[in-house]
Amino acid sequence: MNTFPLTIKSNAFLGSWIEDSTNKQIFSTNLGAEIWLKSSHCSKIIFDWPNRTLAADQSRILISIDGADFYSQILSERNIQLDLDPDSDHLIRIMTQAITFVKAQTWNLSEFFLLKKISFNGQLTGAVPSRKNLVFIGDSIINGQKILSDSFDTSAHRPDKSWAYLLSEKLDFNNLRIAYGGTGITQRANIYPPTAIDFIWNSALNVSRPIDYSQPLAGVIVNLGTNDRSASSEEFSFSLKALLRELKKRFHETKIIVVEPFNGCFQDVFHKVFKDEKHISLIENNHWNFEISDHGVHLSVTGQQQAAKTLLPLIEEKLNA
């Protein structure tokens, strides 16, 4: 059996992946991070991908072969084996689905996705598409968390059905997510740390988030504020202004678009701050009423589709402006 290199240079890893060169492993703290592989004369691919959670939750990944719908695969100490027809070439697409059902402890790297090894026979190459990356910065809604109302475990999270993913596919961009459930702009968010300023620069505490310049950026979409309800208007305004400054430092001349929270939080603050903002665009919440999956803020599958349909022309217009 051959061993596939777990490196960014392999052109197999899309999104927020961090190389562990010492142990020849690769890890991610993000949902929606992807792996693209193309096989030739290959009958077997084996993934050594153990579950890395503290409690009973079982992490999951999503797998699609040759463009078929994604299916969910639980991570455990047992290897994952894909059996393929060696007489045909195949495209394998994998997406990180869920670490835990609620509040994954990723910031201190107690819980995360850790891929230890990919073994295969035949030929296997990285196959990330040569197209622009569209970056999404946000929380559980961008991740597609708790999207299935009848599921109360990690299967409820479906990043492949989120509006961010649907929009990226429609625009033919690679989807690059930097999003964590429960987080926000202020220290009053449901889950803190980190804040958005923390995680646009770092993947975890004291772990820098690398910038991949190999693929050009189509734009940066930010949807945050839903979890900051406990903050005062003054605190949110201060934190929003600070975030905008950091976004400009991080992404330089790339077009940045901020989408107001779907629950309508701090609309007055957004309008006041963006009144004098010349470099970052704002998409205002025009009485959106996307279907939710619970009694809180998470969107259902239909709600995610509604959000994608509503935001597609608005974002496309600003990206092309």
TrEMBL record:
The lineage of its organism: Bacteria, Bacillati, Bacillota, Bacilli, Lactobacillales. SUPFAM superfamilies: SGNH hydrolase. It comes from Oenococcus oeni (strain ATCC BAA-331 / PSU-1). Residues 136-264 form the SGNH hydrolase-type esterase domain. This is Lysophospholipase L1-like esterase. Gene3D superfamilies: SGNH hydrolase.
